Amino acid sequence: MGFFLSSPVAANPAFSPVQVMPAPAVPPEIVVSGVRIWPDDGQFEAAVARGSYQHPRLTGIVFDRESAVVSGQPGLDQAGSGPLLHALGASAVVFFGRRGSQGVAVRCPTRDLGTAAARRYEHLAAHRAASPPLAAAFAEAEWIDAGVEIGGIWWPVIVMERVEGRSLAGEVEHVLGKNPAALRGLAWDWAGFVAVLGAAGVAHGDLQQNNIFVTGDGRLKAVDLDDVWLPAVAHLVPDETGHRHYQHPRRQRDDWGRTVDTFSALVIYLSLCALAVEPDLWERYHNGENLIFTDNDFAHPDQTALWDRLNSSPDQGVRRLVPLLRELCHGPADVGWDLAGLLDRHHHDQTAGLVRPASLTQLARTAPPDDDNRWWDEPETPGPDPGAAWFTTVETDGPTHLDEYGEDAAVTGPGDASSGRTRARVLAAVALVAVLAGIGVGLFLTALVR
Length: 450
Known about the structure:
Radius of gyration: 28 Å
CATH class of the largest domain: Mainly Alpha
Number of helices: 13
Structural class: alpha+beta
Number of domains: 2
Number of strands: 15
CATH architecture of the largest domain: Orthogonal Bundle
């Protein structure tokens, strides 16, 4: 049995990033009951603070420190003299600093992310570099195998772009305190952000309130990219299944693909729309780890107090989205549609008066792997283009805006436009047939008269 104790380097205050510490070819394993033990946040903090790294991407970073209370003088802080500024998550601790004017975040995994993690990050970096929209949506990230040395062992880290702004949860709280109705605008921004990921052919894998930031200029940007899916790494399945208050109640490790974000994307979208019209939902249902929904709500659709509140929302658009989320809770973990296509189909079905099964639990259990007979498939009608937007821009005398989703709004999506063109063609054909029939009847009667 091995335990992590203080590193021998800790006794050498002269240690600095310029010292060269060659990494062993095969790092010694520290194993307990067959499981490799990783350093905790405190051990990583000590190593980073003393400069136990040598990679060029790490050298030269000046790490931020928290303020420290001056001894004997309560209320008086000494800026930048406390512990390293950091954020602790379920799988890693992140330290923040700067190299010159560039903000940097160093993410240190506190558990094994699997042997495929490095390859996923490598492919993501290449994919991001080839897609400017994706580069705007995902923080830059680079996996470094020999990142930080602790006790003679080199541990991997991820050097990331430091995203300046508020977390999604922080932004929601900020907007609620000023103008709750503005959350509807954030909801549209969210739908656009998710559409960018879909158009780039990627999925984040763990969309939740602390993995999305709103920058100072209002852009949405994702961090914590351990679980990102893209075609090149489709066979390199991560171990995690996302935050429980944002994921499908029956999501398993193998539920990982291009549309795996749809459930959590709808949860966030519906939450923002609901909070925009009923701000008190935040005080009643936010617990620090969610917006308003919890895993218990997903496990018991239509059976908790929150479902009752949303079913009676004063906003018709919110009330119309509730059945959609309820059906997703009953159905398969990966719905097979992206958010735009799903909302477009849902709006089409509601306006057409189509009724879906009340419970899809049995179907979720028995559906074949290729999902040939899913409830959202209608063989007679082709599905909407998964990359198409479910909203359209409207030109006015003022600024351009997005049509809102809901019965009260003038929604014109790809499905509606296509349906309109189809109806026009049908009516034209009927009119032509009627004209031809009239001519035929006239000729026939003329012949009889003769």
